[in-house]
């Protein structure tokens, strides 16, 4: 069960790091608002499920409502990300990384205040998907079907993103813009549209990670900080812009977290930081990163 728990959390970190890698790889943007998309997805999903199931007449459709809540959380978060890109992010693509960090951190704080205004200090729980899907028994061990479903979903999305980037015409545009925005513009590629689409996909991935986390973790103020930090560690340890590197790093961090919580929770975070430090000390470009960027 510890291994499955680790893979589940690794799946959430992988989805978050996919968004970070995608937006950095294409637009060279360090996006701290990815943490806000995670918390927004969680809040919207938890609020929708708990609100709908408060009506007795709807309780018989609990599973449908649960997955509708997840879908709603992803879609609304993506649309919010689109709005943010159109109004704020589009002005910071070409500034220094330090200013990008300050700007996106400012947005993170604004979103935290907005969540406090909308939902107050309430902790919103929605464990229905976890309970309703039941468990799978293998050799006497019981595994949550929800956990297995999320692991498969995250891996499938990773493959889909890889396919999009490397096997489609749209992916060619992404890679040209990533290589040189000025050359891409000179070739007639709409750099603005590609950047907007990239940010939108990144927001969807962040919202999906938060929505899928809801059955395990209640939506609460400040919930975005730990996953955001760990997903950045995954992205950097795996090699910025490298999706397969992020997959390996997410599994390492997810399993380490799960094992240490079970046997020695006091040093869980310290050990994760130590592992990432060792990876970067021995291979500064990350597990599957390329030297020189």
What's the count of strands? Answer: 2
Shape summary: globular
Spatial strand order of the main sheet: 1-2
Gyration radius, rounded:
19 Å
For the terminal residues, how far apart are their CA atoms?
38 Å
N-to-C SSE string, H for helix and E for strand: HHHHHEEHHHHHHH
- Gross CATH architecture: Orthogonal Bundle
* Total number of domains: 1
Total number of helices: 12
Structural class by secondary-structure content: mainly alpha
What's the CATH C level? Mainly Alpha
The share of residues in helices is: over 70%
| CATH domain topology | ABC transporter involved in vitamin B12 uptake, BtuC
| Average pLDDT reading | 88
Report on this model:
The protein has 293 residues and is an all-alpha fold. It has a single domain (2-282), classed as ABC transporter involved in vitamin B12 uptake, BtuC (Orthogonal Bundle). The protein has helices spanning 2-27, 34-52, 62-87, 97-119, 128-133, 145-167, 169-179, 181-186, 191-213, 225-238, 243-263, 268-282, and strands at 135-138, 141-144. Strands 1-2 form a two-stranded antiparallel ribbon. A hairpin with a 2-residue loop joins strand 1 (135-138) and strand 2 (141-144).
